[in-house]
């Protein structure tokens, strides 16, 4: 019954929590740049405005693909919060990203097509580390099931510090933060207009924004798996760790310039091999 509450809570509250986190992100970013910044509720106003606009789509398939992106992210998050298989959750998450790529490349806009190509490169950069994280949880806890991972006597991070660092690094790609916001960006500094989402507007763009809020909550849920154990107070520590990671991602976003796709690919794979690979090797030797 508790799992049902977690799943329903995720499906109902994740977009609101994600939008609130986005508002906090904008506010902190503005303060770092010595600006006042928008209201904390600005993301809610933006979504409402997008839904009030007439939906103009390039083709009939694009809106369906955007909805598929949203549905698969909801399904991936529901699996995670239901305590299901973490590896399968990662696969569903990847499938959702593929729908976004196809949606972006379904029109003739050079900006959207270039953004879709870059999105594929981003997937190539972070997918190996995501797979390593799933395998690391299995080696550290003996199970892929989330419910068993969080019921261990000790937190998984004790066995997976390198994988946590690597996941923090590659999460910047998923959060579309500098220096890895090469396919599209939440800020007005993208050289390809809006890249992947250039031709999306109105309800179609609102669906993508809501999907990304679901994904944001899902990713912080994965971060929490590193910390949570059988002790109730580990949930509080996990919340604090997620808050620190949230701040560090914003700090990195505002203190770095966007890199070229080749640099992103090489740096992510380097972190995967060093932080993730060495951590997995030690796990296999210790466990």
Molecular structure report:
72% of the residues lie in helices and 0% in strands. The chain is mainly α. Helix 2 packs antiparallel against helix 8 (202-225) and helix 8 packs across helix 9. The chain is globular and about 55 Å long. The model has no long low-confidence stretch (mean pLDDT 88).
Supply the key terms.
0% strand, globular, 287 residues, mainly alpha
Summarize the structure.
With about 290 residues, the protein is an all-alpha fold. Helices cover about 70% and strands about 0% of the residues. It has helices spanning about 1-30, 40-50, 60-80, 85-105, 110-140, 145-150, 160-175, 200-225, 235-255, 260-285.
Low-confidence stretches: none
Ends distance: 33 Å
Tell how many strands the DSSP assignment holds.
Answer: 0
Radius of gyration: 19 Å
Largest sheet: none
| Tally of helical runs | 10
What share of the residues lie within helices? over 70%
SSE string, helices as H and strands as E: HHHHHHHHHH
- By helix and strand content, what is the structural category? mainly alpha
Summed over residues and divided by their number, the pLDDT gives a mean of 88
Shape descriptor: globular
Proportion of residues in β-strands:
under 5%
């Amino acid at each position: 019954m508790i799992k049902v509450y977690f799943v329903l809570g995720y499906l109902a509250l994740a977009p609101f929590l994600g939008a609130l986190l986005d508002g906090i992100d904008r506010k902190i970013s503005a303060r770092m740049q010595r600006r006042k910044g928008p209201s904390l509720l600005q993301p809610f106003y933006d979504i409402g405005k997008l839904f009030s606009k007439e939906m103009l789509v390039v083709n009939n398939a694009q809106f369906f693909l955007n909805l598929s992106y949203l549905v698969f992210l909801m399904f991936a998050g529901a699996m995670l919060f239901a305590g299901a298989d973490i590896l399968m959750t990662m696969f569903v998450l990847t499938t959702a990203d593929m729908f976004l790529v196809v949606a972006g490349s379904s029109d003739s806009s050079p900006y959207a097509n270039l953004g879709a190509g870059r999105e594929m490169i981003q997937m190539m950069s972070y997918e190996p580390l995501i797979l390593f994280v799933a395998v690391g949880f299995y080696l550290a806890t003996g199970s892929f099931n989330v419910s068993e991972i969080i019921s261990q006597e000790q937190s998984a991070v004790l066995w997976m510090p390198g994988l946590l660092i690597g996941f923090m690094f590659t999460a910047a790609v998923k959060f579309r933060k500098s220096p890895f916001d090469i396919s599209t960006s939440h800020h007005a500094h993208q050289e390809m207009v809006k890249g992947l989402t250039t031709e999306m507007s109105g309800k179609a763009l609102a669906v993508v924004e809501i999907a990304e809020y679901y994904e944001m909550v899902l990713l912080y849920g994965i971060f929490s798996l590193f910390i949570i154990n059988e002790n109730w107070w580990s949930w509080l520590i996990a919340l604090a760790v997620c808050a620190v990671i949230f701040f560090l991602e914003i700090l990195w976003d505002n203190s770095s310039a966007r890199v070229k796709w080749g640099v992103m690919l090489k740096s992510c794979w380097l972190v995967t091999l060093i932080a993730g690979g060495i951590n997995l090797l030690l796990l296999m030797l210790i466990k």
